[in-house]
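Reopening this one. Same input as before:
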Amino acid sequence: MKTLIVIPSRFGSTRFEGKPLIEIAGKTLIQRTYLQAQKNELNARVIVATDDERIHKHVSTFGECMMTGVHHQSGTDRCFEVLEKLNESFDILINLQGDEPFIQPNQIATLAKGLMNVDTKITTLKKRIQSREDLMNPNHVKVVTDKNNNALYFSRQVIPYLRGIESEDWVSHYSYFRHIGLYGFRTEIIHELKSLQVSVLEQMESLEQLRWLDNGFKINVLETDFQSPAIDSPEDLLTVENFLKSNPEMID
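Same output, byte for byte:
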C-alpha cells in the first residue's frame, strides 16, 4: 500500500519555543526525526509540514518540506493539507510527531500493518506504564482499550481509577498504558475527518484524537515496547542526553 509520512512541525510553543531547531548531538530535533522516518520499511515518501519559514529553510537543506496554513487546530490537520496539495494518491497517511527524534522504523511499520485490515481506518500506539511517576504525569497521555484493542478513551488523568487500592500500588495491580502519539490513517476516511468540528472533550483534555472518538470513529491501538524520551520543555534535554548515553547507537 502506498504510504505518505508527514511530520508536522511548529516553531511556536508555549512550553518550548523553537523546539524543532534545537540541536541534539550535532543534528536538530526535526532533522533527527526526518532521518529516522526515512529509515521506514514501507518505501514511503516523507515530508515535513510547517507554517514557519525558518523551519522550511532548514529542512529544505536535507529533505522535503511544505509550507502549510497558520490556521490549523492540530498537527493532523496540517498533515491533511499536505495530502490534499500533493498531485499523487496514497493509501495510507502516517502522522509522525516532529519531536520523535528516536522513532523506530518498526513502529511506523506497525501502524501501517494495522491498516491492512479493511475494517481498520485509524491506528495508533501504546506502551505499558512501568512506574507511578509516569502514571501520574499529566503530560503522559493514558489510553484504555476494549477487548479488540480499540480505544475507549484517552486522558491526561489516570484511567481507570482503581477503587480500594492505594495509588502507589496501581501499576502493580493493573496494566496501564501510555499513548504514543503517532497515527496511521486510511486516506479514504480523511475527507470525513477533515469535516469534523472541534469537540468539547477535545477542548477539555487538549487531545485531538478525542474528536474522532466523539464522532464515532474507531481507533485501533497497537502495542509497542519502545518509548523515546519526551521533549516538552528545555529541562527535558537532560533526559535526552542521559538517554543517548545509555543508547549510543542512536547517535549517527
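So the earlier flakiness isn't reproducible anymore. For the record, The first strand starts at residue 3 and ends at 9.
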